[in-house]
């Protein structure tokens, strides 16, 4: 899991709940502290907040140089590289400078003497206070690496994703009421873990987020919906990366695809190649906001009932 923290808002209530679910399952987590191009909380204060509120043991793998109007970039501790920031500019290789020794005078050339001095002092504190990163501890969920950046400027994200690809765990076996599903199985299985309405405000769409657990999911192929006891086919399964969406032809264990939903799915629903499986351990959150809803037009009771059903 990747936990995104706003540099100004810090840890929000919803984040605490989701992290608690991950912690219960010893899910490895990485933290991305976002919006460094704006003014916000001090980096050390944010790390304290993450440790205190989310009860995560953290170790920074990148460190910011300044913040807001003073933000110059990040130093990647994992790869010993300096990444320079340019607002509204796609990060490229030309802004990445390899500096294995932060005492080198090369640092002053790129960020100036004042920022270089501050960075050296902060990195000395980081290496003293926080534990050395250990992949085994990350995989068992006992340590969480932290990266800093600005997602809207596509800055600092590459370092997070490169590290994620390198250290993230393989797809794991999943428990069902009937048996254990292992990712190496030939036959396709998976389940819906989230349903999101109105991702595109122009189309009132609903998308079911579906995790593949075994086999290969293929576009335009009939699959067995266990709860409805019927076959369904999906013409435009979608993958998501930030605001970018694209149709996928195939997806593999560990992948998540978005399936456009006209009311066929509930959280926990399974799709298979014919076997009846019910996946276990999918978190459900109790309602927190309660409202009375009155139907203003009795002649539209069906639409009213359908709307309530979709909300639920």
Q: How would you describe the overall organization of this protein?
A:
The chain is of the alpha+beta class and 312 residues long. Helix content is 24%, strand content 26%. It has 7 helices and 20 strands. The protein has helices at residues 13-24, 43-54, 106-111, 113-129, 135-139, 157-167, 301-311, and strands spanning 2-6, 30-34, 58-60, 62-65, 73-76, 81-84, 96-98, 144-148, 174-175, 180-181, 189-197, 206-214, 217-218, 223-225, 230-232, 238-241, 244-247, 250-251, 256-260, 270-272. The longest helix has 17 residues, at 113-129. The model has no long low-confidence stretch (mean pLDDT 88).
Question: Which key phrases capture this entry?
Answer:
312 residues, alpha+beta, six-stranded antiparallel β-sheet, four-stranded parallel β-sheet
The SSE order reads: EHEHEEEEEHHHEHEEEEEEEEEEEEH
Category by helix and strand content: alpha+beta
- Percentage of helical residues? 10-25%
Strand elements, count: 20
Shape: globular
Strand content: 25-35%
CA(first)-CA(last) distance: 26 Å
Q: What is the count of DSSP helices, taking H or I runs of 4+ residues?
A: 7
What is the rounded Rg?
23 Å
Strand order of the largest sheet: 15-14-20-11-12-19
Low-confidence stretches: none
| Largest sheet report | 6 strands, antiparallel
Would you tell me the overall average pLDDT?
Answer: 88
